[in-house]
Amino acid sequence: MRETEFNVGKFFAFIFVAIIFLFMISPLFEEGSGLKLDTTLKDIKNRISYFHSLKSVKESERILQNYNDFSRYREIVDSAKTITLNESKDLENGSANLVTSIVLDYRGFDTLGELLVLFISILGLTIILSGLSFEKFKEPSFLQITGVKFITPFITLVSIYVFLHGHLSPGGGFPAGAMIATAALFSLIGYKYNYTLSTLKIIESKSGFLIVFLATCGLYFTGSFFGNFLPTGKVGELFSSILILIIYSLVGFKVGAELSTGIKTLYDGEKDANRQ
Amino acid sequence: MQIDNRTLYIFSFIIFLIGVYGAITNRNLFKILISLSIMETALNIFLVSLGYISGSKPPILSSGMKTISPANINISDPLPHALVLTAIVIGVGTTAVGVGLAIKLFNHYKTLNINRMGDKDEL
Fold it and tell me: Tell me, what DSSP letter sits at residue A102?
């Protein structure tokens, strides 16, 4: 009896979803009158991130201040310089990954807020789960423990590679932090390495403090929060934009410590007779 | 092969509605959380595809694309990528808090079925 009711519910849910789908795709096929955003935005020169991509934000701001309007927009666009891998030197930032240059240089304040959101959510998780104890799900088998012991050093190595190469290749501090947290979980399972929450607290608070300190140094030396005050060498080399390298490493440690705190809280909640 | 932006939008809508369907038909709290994650992923795909220009390359200078200049620039918009990075991290945070609340509810009611959660006194 209950089964048939459930299927009827699923049928109506499917119809509901199909109707929403029709509503969602209908604007895509409409031939309305007026300005078409899609055709003008096909060219990246009409988008704001054109200046971020060619690292000419400050230069074009300076030109724009002379004219005081957007009448010579095309001229400003064409005044940007060519960027070549392993040749261009001393640009606004030396990041070969243009997304990283936006995340940590032009929109660094955004990333700081992102870190704060993650910190607050892990704080909420630890408050929700504090003093809670629940049944252990399953004891890890011998095979699992051996495999985990084998793979943990490699995960740590890859995470270090990822946050050191955040300005050259896809990746960066946040995936590296997730990998560090995975390695921490595996070392809890495999090596029985029982790190304490206070260690994580020290790593997390010190790296967070250093990020804010470097950002404030940028305010002091260049006049803008998260300003790039360290040398930016050649595009494409490992030590090309040192500030991004340092901040991404600190972000990696901070995110890794935060996620490890969440994992450790969940691990401590489990009832286990073998643990002290 | 070049992909139209519209195709990507439709794909993201389909993934989003798979998430909606899962959230309204499932009764298990963890399955609802998974459905919410699927909806989040669909939103991220939609935002990234807003920055996609058909036929463009990823915005990373590498051996495949050594130089960019005003005359020769063929990359997709890097700004939505940066914003989606923020969205992903916030998604991780909300999922973590959701899982914590689900564990707390399971500890209290001894079930994850949201239909049976109210009648603990009758058991």
Answer: I
Most A-contacting residue of B86, B88, B94 (CB-CB within 10 A), to test interface: B86
Question: So what's the ipTM on this one?
Answer: 0.86
Which of A55, A50, A84 lies closest to A236 in space, CA to CA? Answer: A84
d(CA A234, CA A236) in angstroms, rounded, equals: 6
Q: Which residues of A touch B6 (CB under 8 A)?
A: 28
Give the three-class secondary structure for A232.
strand
pTM (whole model) above 0.80: yes
> Which residues does B89 contact at the CB level (< 8 Å), separation at least 6?
A114, A117, A118, A174
Residue in chain A nearest B78 by alpha carbon: A99
CA–CA dist A128, B107 (Å, integer): 12
- DSSP category for residue B51: T
**pLDDT tens readout for residues A7-45:** 788 889 999 999 999 998 888 888 777 766 667 777 888
Taking contacts as CB-CB distances below 8 angstroms, the residues of chain A near B79 are 47-49, 52, 102
